[in-house]
Amino acid sequence: MSTRTSDRTDRTTATRTLERELSTLIRRLKRVVAERASEVHPDLQPAAYWILTHLEHHGSQRAATVADHLELDKGAVSRHVQHLLDLGLLDRSPDPDDGRATLLSLSEDGARRLSAVDEHRRQWFDEVLGSWDDDELAGFAGDLSRYNRTLEQARAVRDAARP
Amino acid sequence: MSTRTSDRTDRTTATRTLERELSTLIRRLKRVVAERASEVHPDLQPAAYWILTHLEHHGSQRAATVADHLELDKGAVSRHVQHLLDLGLLDRSPDPDDGRATLLSLSEDGARRLSAVDEHRRQWFDEVLGSWDDDELAGFAGDLSRYNRTLEQARAVRDAARP
DNA sequence: TCCAGATGGTTGACGAGTGCAACCAACGAG
DNA sequence: CTCGTTGGTTGCACTCGTCAACCATCTGGA
């Protein structure tokens, strides 16, 4: 497939494709997530869904940590958390180690609803990604992780260079 | 790497990773694009940048076609196009085949500015993705394309089923 | 020929989402 | 104790996308 010429042009094409594909991906995914979120709870805002899954994966955390991991403004996180608390999907308890902070974690209801949707999502992915075998899927997920880590490093370098 | 067990669990993990990685990717990319857009023109809105690159890639098109390809509301496209016209990055000419429609294309200035940034972007990707060799990059871009096409099909099926 | 419906495009209203900055409360090092 | 830092909340501004109403134009059929 590769011509092994390995010149600038090949790379430019690849990166341009990357950029364009990612753009359509973003739009498509936004819709998918909106749907997924509404499955968890009819009134759940899509963006808050990410916070929910993040806490599902990482366990109890303070809001600042979530904001840092998700690279979100702490104000945005604060609002989403409030929203999630209103819906009863999250529990908040004071951090015993720091009087300012509070620890966020899934509520029982939140965990239940999320795992119910986990199952549904697996079915959806199975249906949609049926043509991908396990290795391909794992490879793609791995590439994505690597790409993310690359971007993260680039960001860290940039942040460090900028006082 | 793969255990060849090929059971449900593997797949669930992969899809969950996929979902999470994609979410952080979206947020990161939003920043990158915002930066790229402002390089093209200080007042260029990030979302309009996609329309610009789309026209760069596909040539002259009417707004409705752009909206269809980018899966955007025609109202949104209309606004972005107006914005791009104001900035002088786009040209608009009446469609000779249809009195209602207008054909959009890059203006000379738009093309020049975009290609200037193309070069800059290549440098950026080279710097950031330096650890990826050509085949890996091409493979990743290919996977993304495939994933997009998969999502597109899923959407088409869904739309068809829904009157 | 003329009318009804479809289509291209514009616009206004609205809600989601986010960053920024100001602010308060609590921490921690000097 | 004081000062700078950090966790969190809130108001403001702005981008963005969707929905719906609207006008102009095209198109097929009576």
**Mean pLDDT, all residues of chain A:** 82
* The CATH homology group name of chain A: Winged helix-like DNA-binding domain superfamily/Winged helix DNA-binding domain
The gyration radius over C-alpha positions of chain A equals: 19 Å
Count of domain modules of chain A: 1
Strand order of the largest sheet of chain A: 1-3-2
N-end to C-end Cα span of chain A: 45 Å
Low-confidence stretches of chain A: 1-6
Taken from the alpha-carbon principal axes, the silhouette of chain A is globular
Assembly context of the chains: homodimer
Brief overview:
Two copies of one chain form a homodimer. With 163 residues, chain A is mostly helical.
Question: Could you explain how this protein is built, in words?
Answer:
The structure is a homodimer of 163-residue chains. Chain A has 163 residues and is mainly α. Chain A has one domain (3-128): Arc Repressor Mutant, subunit A, CATH 1.10.10. Helix content of chain A is 71%, strand content 7%. Chain A has helices at 8-40, 46-58, 63-70, 74-86, 108-128, 134-161, and strands spanning 61-62, 90-94, 102-106. Chain A has a three-stranded antiparallel sheet with strand order 1-3-2. In chain A, helix 1 (8-40) crosses helix 2, helix 2 crosses helix 4 and helix 3 (63-70) packs across helix 4 (74-86). The longest helix of chain A has 33 residues, at 8-40. The termini of chain A are far apart. Residues 1-6 of chain A have low confidence and may be disordered. The interface between A and B is large, with 63 and 62 residues. The first copy, chain A, binds a DNA duplex (30 and 30 nucleotides) through helix 4.
